[in-house]
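REVIEWER CHECKLIST
Item 1: Sequence provided? yes
Item 2: Single chain? yes
Item 3: Sequence as submitted:
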Amino acid sequence: MHDIYTRATAIFGKASGGGIRWPYGVADPCRSNYPKPEDAERYEEVLRSRRAAQQLVVEWAGKYGLKTSDSGCCPQWLQRRASRRCMSDACTHYGSSTSAPDHGWLDHMTAWLQNGKPVAITSAPYSISKDDEQRFAWWQQHDPRLRVASGTGWYGFGTTQIIVWRSDLVTTMEPA
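Item 4: Structure as written out by the authors:
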């Protein structure tokens, strides 16, 4: 397990408390959330699930030479040469309200860098609407470098992993 933490630290960095800055839903569960003796089995089950997710995301990111970015926000970020967040009113994820056109499918989003450049965004929405599918097509039509793939990822809970990436930097990407 030590090796995974070394690799994960290189990919995700360290949190202020000293642990790894795992993507949302991948960190070890807090033991205090399972206070009763009868909760011990459930805690161990959740811990095993999270450790499997950690292994999966570290292997996936390592395969492509990726590191996370706190600046990534929407597919416009992928079109930049450097990692910097959109202006809030122009962002297609956050925008000025939940009606931003990419808000729905960017649930549980992680932004990824390769060699310091924006290269991919992953998300794990619970559902994908027709509007989301139209947005994927729109992005690919308006920027021929962008590609989209979907499948099973590390988040779980019935979600679908979505990957939007720059094909000029990484030819193909597959869900974890």
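Item 5: Key structural point noted by reviewer: Residues 67-166 form one domain.
Item 6: Recommendation: ____
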